[in-house]
Automatic annotation (TrEMBL):
Alphabetical keyword list: Coiled coil
UniProt-listed GO biological process terms: clathrin coat assembly; clathrin-dependent endocytosis; neuron projection morphogenesis
SUPFAM superfamilies in UniProt: BAR/IMD domain-like, WW domain
Gene Ontology CC terms, in alphabetical order: clathrin-coated pit; clathrin-coated vesicle; plasma membrane
The keyword Coiled coil is assigned to this record: yes
Name this polypeptide is given: Growth arrest specific 7
Domain annotation F-BAR: ranges: 137-397
PROSITE patterns in the record: F_BAR, WW_DOMAIN_1, WW_DOMAIN_2
Occurrences of domain WW (ranges): 38-71
Keyword Transport: no
SMART domains per record: FCH, WW
InterPro entries in alphabetical order: AH/BAR_dom_sf, F_BAR_dom, FCH_dom, GAS7_F-BAR, WW_dom, WW_dom_sf
Name of the encoding gene: GAS7
Amino acid sequence: MGLSFVSFSSGVFSVYHQPHEGFKEKNTLPTIKQTKSVPLPQGWRCYMSPEGCRYYVNTGSKETTWERPSLKAISLLCSSSSFLSSSPSDVSQKPLSLVSHSLEFVSLFFCIQINCVTFPLPSVTPDQPEQQLLKPNEWSYCDYFWTDKKDPQGTPSVGGFEVLLQKQLKGKQMQKEMAEFVRERIKIEDEYSKNLSKLSQSPLAAQEEGTLGEAWAQLKRSCHDEAEVHLKFSNKLQCEVEKPLLTFRDNFKKELKKYDHHIIDLRKQLASRYAGVEKARKALADRQKDLEVKTQQLDIKHMNKHEEDIKKARRKSTQAGDDLMHNVDLYNRAQSKWFEEMVTTSLELERLEVERVEMIRQNLRQYTTLRHETDMFNQSTVEPVDQLLQSVDPAKDRELWVQEHKTGELRPVDMDI
């Protein structure tokens, strides 16, 4: 069962259709006892839906609404609907003759159009329920980007989806810059590795001897080992951090382009349908005005001719009303399609953003893991140096050097006369 909505805007009624599941016939549901201080308008009764929500039924016209009807709203609605009647004489009998015959459940409320999109007006009565969020308490994209955002610099307003898209594009750019940062770190590691390797082959202090010479030689070898560690760190950064960032960014860009084109096309279709509604609305107003003029010009002397003119004007007015209803239906279908795709796409962008953040987090954690490993390997390269430095013994070095380079043990004595 579907709920159809009738709204009044710019002097014209519009009909909207919104699917709703779970409705049953009113005679199967309990009537809610009225506890409000203000009674319902005559002919209206309150019921409880299977989901536990209040709704209101007009027992005469079978009209149904989620909003509590008020005498003021009903009065204004009926007084503003004269153009929909089949003739000027029966307005009071059938104020909604073009729409009520096709609607089993009808909700009456006022709407506004902003950039070709229809929105309900804010609640005007304390008991009028507000729209519920699609995903409460989640701050989901699908709940907060329906209206267009005005640019403070005077450029045309930006659609809510465009704001979401700019967020994704900014995220894509940030990811690109992160990859560039890692690339610069890789270059530094490569250069550092080359310099360490070159330094380890330096002949400086190569002639140092003894235990100190051994420690010095080990220190030079540790520079070579450290160069290997940094080279491996550089290679792993490229394979395990930089490359995934770049690959994910490319896929992300393709996804965004697909969604962007789709939503833009649907918004253009909606604008086109809205233009059709406005054109049909103007045509109906013109036909109604023509009918009123011909009715007021009724001349008894030319009764037959004027009656024929009035019949023709009435047929044209009725046709214009049918055209308006048809265009409104096309508009509502286009808006419904745009609404569904906006929800689907915004949730998909939300999912992609979560994936992007999680992927970057995992890659940065991999970076820190590799960095810790590099520190551990670097530490292992200097441990042998520490051990040899602890074994450095100047006395032992002197003994070894003397044994190898001594020139004689006999000391000089005084000369005899």
